[in-house]
């Protein structure tokens, strides 16, 4: 039996056995290419979550009516990227083995690779839906194949063509966009075409990864690599609700770096995204 974290995300203080969803933090930002600080996201989100309500007027649902377990933060190796990914994979695999949904709080986007490795082993037909400002399709970044700039390319290495669907993309080098045309579905700038993808993925196992920098920096400045031209909070929420009927077997939110927004607005937005995500996961 796992013991719940002492300080939990608001409304997520249930026991492990009774919970359908398990949240956990992956405080890792060792490959960040611009401004570090995402390792502090999960801790700050737990503390600041008590500034929002458990009730969602968007979904007319309440965290108090569902069972979510907060497993706390993993103790990850900052000096060994592969070891950190293996630690994430191990925890996610244990949650999946217990037929629960792992919901990870990053950390930089590379942490997604560890959780997807676990999900792909249980669900060989796994598909990815990615909300993000960046393609993350580089084969390497400054010679390093493991980076938050290469994470979706490494996911493609496992899953292959036709399994990855990107939305909100507005940044990447020319080679990423050219390579991506032949291997992944990429919708630039917004969520157009999401309904068609949802129809296509009905009944298939889906991993949802939300890089919070998909939000416009006017809404969400607290991130390591802000990109102008992003979506609004309501647009992101509507996109999340659009995929809520899919068989989501794992998910994460990542790239909140609280130190770059002393107002706390970015953290508050991240907390609301997580609240809505947890409620939609438990809507069935």
What this model shows, in words?
There is one protein chain. It is built from 8 helices and 10 strands. It has 284 residues and is of the alpha/beta class. It has a single domain (21-281), classed as Ureohydrolase domain (Arginase, Chain A), CATH 3.40.800.10. Helix 2 crosses helix 3 (111-122), helix 3 (111-122) packs parallel to helix 4 and helix 7 (233-242) runs parallel beside helix 8. The relative contact order is 0.19. The model has no long low-confidence stretch (mean pLDDT 96).
Spell out the blueprint of helices and strands.
Elements: E1 21-26, H1 41-48, E2 55-56, E3 61-62, E4 68-73, H2 81-97, E5 101-106, H3 111-122, E6 127-131, H4 151-159, E7 164-169, H5 174-183, E8 185-188, H6 194-200, E9 205-211, H7 233-242, E10 247-254, H8 265-281
Parallel strand pairs: 1-4, 1-5, 5-10, 6-7, 6-9, 7-8, 9-10
Antiparallel strand pairs: 2-3
Helix pairs in contact: 1-8, 2-3, 3-4, 7-8
- Which of globular, elongated, flat, extended, rod-shaped describes the shape? globular
Q: Distance between the terminal alpha carbons, to the nearest Å?
A: 25 Å
Overall tally of domains: 1
Which class best fits the helix and strand makeup?
alpha/beta
Radius of gyration: 17 Å
Helix count from the secondary structure assignment:
8
Profile the largest sheet. Answer: 8 strands, parallel
Q: Spans of 5+ residues with little confidence (pLDDT < 50)?
A: none
CATH class: Alpha Beta
Strand fraction: 15-25%
User: Strand order of the main beta sheet, please?
Assistant: 4-1-5-10-9-6-7-8
């Amino acid at each position: 039996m796992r013991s719940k974290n002492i300080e939990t995300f608001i409304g997520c203080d249930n026991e492990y056995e009774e919970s359908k969803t398990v949240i956990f933090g992956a405080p890792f930002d060792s490959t960040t290419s611009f401004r570090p600080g995402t390792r502090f996201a999960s801790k700050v989100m737990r503390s600041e979550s008590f500034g929002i309500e458990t009730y969602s007027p968007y979904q007319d649902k309440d965290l108090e009516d569902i069972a979510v377990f907060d497993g706390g933060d993993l103790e990850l190796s900052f000096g060994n990227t592969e070891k950190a990914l293996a630690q994430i994979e191990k925890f996610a695999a244990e949650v999946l083995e217990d037929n629960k949904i792992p919901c990870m709080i990053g950390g930089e986007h590379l942490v997604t690779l560890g959780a997807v490795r676990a999900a792909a082993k249980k669900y060989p037909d796994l598909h990815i839906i990615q909300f993000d400002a960046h393609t993350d399709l580089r084969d390497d970044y400054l010679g390093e194949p493991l980076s938050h700039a290469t994470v979706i390319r490494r996911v493609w290495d496992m899953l292959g063509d036709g399994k990855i669907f990107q939305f909100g993309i507005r940044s990447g080098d020319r080679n990423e966009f050219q390579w991506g045309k032949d291997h992944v579905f990429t919708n630039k700038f917004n969520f157009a075409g999401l309904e068609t993808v949802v129809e296509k993925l009905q009944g298939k196992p889906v991993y949802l990864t939300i890089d919070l920098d998909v939000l416009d920096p006017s809404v969400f400045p607290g991130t390591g690599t802000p990109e102008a031209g992003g979506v609004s909070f309501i647009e992101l929420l509507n996109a999340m609700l659009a995929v809520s009927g899919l068989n989501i077997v794992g998910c994460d939110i990542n790239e909140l770096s609280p130190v770059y927004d002393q107002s706390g607005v970015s953290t508050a937005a991240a907390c609301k995204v997580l609240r809505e995500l947890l409620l939609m996961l438990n809507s069935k």
